[in-house]
UniProtKB/TrEMBL annotation:
Its EC number is 1.6.5.-, 1.7.1.17. Homodimer. This is FMN dependent NADH:quinone oxidoreductase. The keyword Magnesium does not apply. SUPFAM superfamilies: Flavoproteins. InterPro entries: Flavodoxin_fold, Flavoprotein-like_sf, FMN-dep_NADH:Q_OxRdtase_AzoR1, NADH:quinone_OxRdtase_FMN_depd. Also exhibits azoreductase activity. Catalyzes the reductive cleavage of the azo bond in aromatic azo compounds to the corresponding amines.
Length: 186
C-alpha cells in the first residue's frame, strides 16, 4: 500500500489537523505495511497558480505532485478550516493536481475523474461547530474537498473531524477524544 500524506495546518506544532492526520497514518500503517510519502505544503510551500504556470506545456513540480497522487492507493489530507474553507497552501496543491487530460477529462456527459479506486481520509480541524446548525452553510472546507476529490475520481472519502476546538478546554478535549475514537474505528 502507498499512502500520500498531505499536511496543511499552519500552526505546525499545535495543529489539530496534523495530529489527526498523523494518527490516521499511524493507524493505517499498523494494519498493513505501507510506503508513506509525506508532503507538507506549509513547510515546503507550493507556489500559487498563475497564468504562465497554467499554460506551460511542461511543469516539473506539477508533474511530481500528480505522480505522487497517481501512485498513492490512499490519500490522507490534514485540512484545517480557516475562514470557512481550506488553507491556501492546500488550494495551491489542488490547483496543481486537478489537471484536464491527466487527473480528469471532459466528456460529452460531463467531467470524468481518472483517479478511481483510491481512498481518501480528511483530517478536519475546526475552531467552531460547522457540521450542523446554521453554521453548516458556511462549510466550504469538507464539502469543497469532497467535491474536488470526486471531480478527479476519488469518491471513497472518509472525514475524521475535531470541531469546536476553540470553544474552551472541555470542548477541545471532547473533540480530540471523538477524533481519536473515529480513527480507531477506521
Amino acid at each position: 500500500m502507498k499512502i500520500l500524506h498531505i499536511d496543511s495546518g499552519i500552526f505546525v506544532e499545535q495543529s489539530v489537523s496534523r495530529k489527526i492526520s498523523r494518527d490516521i497514518v499511524t493507524h493505517l500503517t499498523a494494519q498493513q505495511p505501507a510506503e508513506v510519502v509525506h508532503r507538507d505544503v506549509v513547510l515546503n510551500p507550493i507556489p500559487h497558480l498563475d497564468a504562465e504556470t497554467l499554460l506551460a506545456t511542461e511543469n516539473p513540480l506539477s508533474d511530481e505532485l500528480i505522480a505522487e497522487l497517481q501512485a498513492a492507493d490512499v490519500l490522507v489530507i490534514g485540512a484545517p478550516m480557516y475562514n470557512f474553507t481550506i488553507p491556501t497552501q492546500l488550494k495551491a496543491w489542488l490547483d496543481r493536481v486537478l489537471k484536464a487530460g491527466v487527473t480528469f477529462k471532459y466528456t460529452e456527459q460531463g467531467p470524468e475523474g481518472l483517479l478511481k479506486g483510491k481512498t481518501a481520509y480528511i483530517a478536519s480541524g475546526r475552531g467552531g461547530i460547522y457540521s450542523k446548525g446554521d453554521a453548516a452553510a458556511l462549510d466550504h472546507q469538507e464539502s469543497y474537498l469532497r467535491n474536488a476529490l470526486a471531480f478527479i475520481g476519488i469518491t471513497d472519502v472518509h472525514v475524521v473531524r475535531a470541531e469546536g476546538v476553540n470553544l474552551g478546554d472541555e470542548p477541545r478535549q471532547q473533540a480530540l477524544a471523538a477524533a481519536e475514537e473515529a480513527v480507531a474505528e477506521l
